[in-house]
Amino acid sequence: MRETPEELKELQALLDASLSRSTSYLRSIINGERTLTAEQLTQVLTGMRTLALSTVTAKGEPRISGVDGHFLHGKWHFGTARNAAKARHLAARPAVSAAHLRGEELGVFTHGTVEILNSRDGEPAADWPDLLAYFKGFYGDDAFDWDGEVVYYRLHPHWMTVYTSDVAKLTAAPRP
């Protein structure tokens, strides 16, 4: 777990507020017995998790693709090739939706906007050196041309919910 107490507090407030603003139908599915706390979520979402990421084209058409998601400091982080279609979509329209699903066992659903962490044209995010060290440690120093080939994003969520079919089983399971 990389989250500070303040980050956990912010994440818990987001989870609580998101669920309270949701429809009664969603609240009938996701309740205290079928969700995770911020602390539990950060313990479950370690390492790389595949995200289904939804962006929007210039014509307003939705596009979904898979990305390697890393849940760090209470937010999703992911990368793609600088010349990928999703990179063009995100540069023009930074609103996204992301879902991480693990069968019926876990679903994490997020809506928000992305921040570019390693822009070619501007200053990188203040924490980019630490994040880059994490990504290089995960993928390897020579996995990419880290300066030119890949662009990384942080998803700033304005809505996030978590569903689990069995809190005790999920939180007791060994972390892959």
From TrEMBL:
Organism domain of life: Bacteria
Matches recorded under InterPro entries: Pyridox_Oxase_N (IPR011576), Split_barrel_FMN-bd (IPR012349)
Family matches, as Pfam families: PNPOx_N (PF01243)
Segments forming domain Pyridoxamine 5'-phosphate oxidase N-terminal: 39-157
Protein name according to UniProt: Pyridoxamine 5'-phosphate oxidase family protein
Organism: Streptosporangium vulgare
